Amino acid sequence: MFSKKDIEEQILVIFGSNGDLSKRKLLPAIFQLYLNNLLPEKFIVIGTGSKDKNEITNREDVKSAILEFSPNSKHFDSKKIENFLNCVYYQRVHNQTETDFEGLKNYINTLSANLNIARNIIYYFSIPPFLYEVVANHLVRYGLNREEDGWKRIIVEKPFGYSYATAVELDQKLHTGFHEDQIYRIDHYLGKETVQNIMVTRFYNGFFEPIWNRKYVDRVEITAAEKIGVGDRGGYYDTSGAMRDMIQNHLLQVLAVVAMEPPAIFDSNSIRNETVKVLQALRPITAENASKQVVRGQYVATQVDGQMCPGYREERGVDPNSKTETFVALKAFVDNWRWGDVPFYIRTGKRLPVRVTEVVIHLKHAPHQLFKQLCLTHPNNMIILRIHPDAGIAIDFGMKIPGAGYKVQNVNMAFKYADLTDAKIPEAYERLLLDCMTGDSTLYARADAVRASWKFVDPIIQAWKEKQDIPLCFYKCNSWGPLEANNLFDEPYTKWCEPEE
What DSSP letter does each residue of 22-65 carry, written as one string? Predict the structure, then answer.
């Protein structure tokens, strides 16, 4: 575990510090790192935004965000909050006004000199994606990317591009002023403790790794279900959809962690080399196969528990004739020796029955089923890796029911990750911010990984646009999506797992 002595003094600049992401996630995460004594001895946060406000007003805004969005905020020591706020500053910057960045540079230099703090700087792009290139260019224009007086890093939020071509173009433009080691493409899913624990589960325990391959695994399911609809994000979501918002950004990264080969050594480059190989080995889904391997859906108005839930097309900011998908289920294959012909089923959607993210490894049946006729149920053995909520692991296997005869029933042996410690499990942004502060890019997406994931999803999105015969399936709120998603399985009796909350 790090301590503040292990981390270099530095400055964190948040572009868009008045926005929702900053208030809900970033500022509470930074304050939690402060409470955990994980910030360096010399550390300041500079928020930027178009609002014209002084330090006192800004600190009151930061305090309100911490108290509203931090877990257990009722138990915070008011003195600690006040001490933390002394590290918080603000500079008015309009992101599209180049000259404002000259003012930012002067402000950073003044604070650095007055506080005697090194100019090691992280720039967090908590801004709309169309501004990534703009802000990066302004930083370069005023030399705020140069490392003669200290390292410089940028954290770029998702989505990184809108397609393969735009992702490549954005990457090239960022690299005109920043080298790859300076660019941190954040994916908060990789910051979740249980996603990281998948690697430990596989590579530490000798009884898992020998069966983690095509010889013993029948199929893999990855589910990320959300109970809510698009809410106030209708305008953004209608230009994105579930494929771009969840599959490309998050779930392909989870698949890569599940399917990766053991790295030669446990460092950032070695781990990311192996996850990239998985993404590059994904079998392309052509336009001809898109309707066979992918199901897209959209939720419709439904009465749930006596209340009417609006359909997607009735949400604010959504086109009344929108064909944007709020649900995607697909069947993918990783064409390598370990996973040849093992199907990976990925499913995500909004307005589903529960909020849950989990990976289910379905093992093949024993070669000779002695007790097949005596089983009360006859599912495969399963290894369930729950990512969120109640993170943990469960193993599902058959046991004899007490009494005469050999009736067999599947039972579950489960462990909750929180049982390992009395301490709070860190939020994803806490871990990811700390990693960037220490220069560890393991849990950040590399450029080639982003390109590989876009290369996989692009043909599917293009097929939806061009082939009018590919259906958009509708599903009721509080259901597990369109029934057509079950058609992805080869066996007619096989269904998706239905996770419990």
Answer: IIIIIHHHHHHHHHTT-S-SSEEEEEEESS---HHHHHHHHHHH
